[in-house]
Design a protein that fits this description.
Elements lengths: L1 H4 L10 E5 L6 H8 L10 E5 L7 H7 L10 E5 L7 H7 L10 E5 L7 H10 L5 E2 L1
Length: 132
């Protein structure tokens, strides 16, 4: 599903996209495909509901590339109930490098991250970001 949906990055007028892919088991492979949405030239608001999909650190490392979307202002990543470990927390902290991002919500409940990793994530993300 993720790779097929990655073709949306070629939609020149795409500004807002919400995908509810919860419990579709797209895994890391699908997450890698969705990361290509970073190439959508006009994308400003992106919500990805990827809960309960067996996404692990490899998939999150790919999704962090969304920070390179040129006009992205709002990003919501629902990553509940996946296989995210400490590497995912450190990778998600890189989202703070997106200077035009004004709204960021990351839901990492029901994963295997340690409290230390969650604190690293919280400290790295810009003020106003929401980590659940």
């Amino acid at each position: 599903a993720g790779w097929a949906l990655s073709m949306l990055c070629e939609a020149p007028a795409l500004q807002t996209l919400t995908l509810d892919l919860g419990k579709t088991l797209i895994g890391d492979f699908g997450a890698e495909g969705l990361a290509l949405l970073k190439d959508a030239p006009e994308l400003q608001v992106l919500t990805l509901r990827l809960n309960d999909n067996q996404v692990a650190d490899k998939g999150v490392l790919a999704l962090v590339a969304l920070k390179d979307a040129p006009k992205l202002r709002s990003l919501t990543l629902d990553l509940r109930g996946n296989l995210l470990g400490n590497e995912s927390a450190i990778a998600l902290a890189e989202l703070s490098q997106q200077s035009s991002l004004r709204s960021l919500t990351v839901d990492v409940r029901q994963n295997v991250m340690t409290r230390k990793s969650l604190k690293i994530l919280e400290a790295a993300l810009p003020k106003g970001s929401v980590i659940i």
